[in-house]
Amino acid sequence: MSSGTLTVVPETSELPPPGRGDLTAADRPALIGPLDTIEVDVFGIPDLGREMQVDASGRIAMPLAGTVDARGKTAQELAQAIEIALRQHYVRNPEVTVNIKSSVSQVVTIDGSVVEPGLYPVTNQMTLMRVIASAKGMTEFARQEDVVILRTVGTRRMAGLYNVAAIRRGAYDDPAVYANDIIIVGDSPQRRLFRDFVSLSPLLAGPLIAVLQ
Fold first, then answer.
1. Does residue 186 sit within a domain?
2. H or E element that contains 198
3. 56 neighbors 119 (Cβ within 8 angstroms)
4. How far is CA 115 from the centre of its chain?
5. Contact between 19 and 153 (Cβ < 8 Å)
6. How many CA atoms lie within 13 A of 106 on its CB side?
7. Which of 1, 29, 66, 73 could form an S-S bond across to 78 if both were Cys, CB 3.0 to 4.6 Å?
8. DSSP character string of 99-144
9. Residue 17, domain extent
10. Residues 98 and 109 in one domain
């Protein structure tokens, strides 16, 4: 994540939406996420083979293996995790293969001071507050005024600084969130870049929007 300098965009209260090309990331590794559909095969034990959907929290449940966390793993990494779980339940030398059948590529990343950071699927009308709720909310000591949304718009890497408490008060709108956005709650290199601007205007009437350089 770039964290060099930023240029605040004056008189702008919204991050511009990404273009169609910004919503895909061809170089992203095939990581399993919530609501993806996967196929699991266990060599020599056909009864354990099945197609299943990863639940909203990023987990799967299998006979003998129990509940396994799949979120953020490659197919090979998940296969290894299932093999470990099966060995713990007395399956000798399990050989597991995992294939991703269909992927929910439209995901947003939330990190920092939230209860469950990670990748979350972007649904229609997804907003900042809804993503935070999907991550089970902010942690007890999270700074509500330190929430940054990072977004690629064309060739520009942009950032918006938001105050969740102000959004809850109705001071300004809950911003829309799009696929490939990265949300960081709490201190971050990007948040620190806003320091000088916030010190000049500590009582912000709206979000700060900037271009990262």
1. yes
2. helix 195-200
3. no
4. 13
5. yes
6. 10
7. 73
8. EEEE----EEEEEESBSS-EEEE--TT-BHHHHHHHTT-B-TT--T
9. 6-25+105-212
10. no
> For the chain, how many structural domains are there in total?
2
Q: Record the tokens describing residue 87, joined without a space.
A: 């060995």
The strand pair at 208-212 and 6-8 is best described as antiparallel
Strand ranges across the sheet with 107-112: 6-8, 208-212, 156-162, 147-153, 182-185, 107-112, 118-121
- How many residues in total does the chain contain? 213
CA distances from 97 to 45, 50, 94, 122 (A): 12, 11, 10, 28
- Tokens standing for 4? 């060099």
Each residue's pLDDT tens digit, 48-68: 999 999 988 889 999 999 999
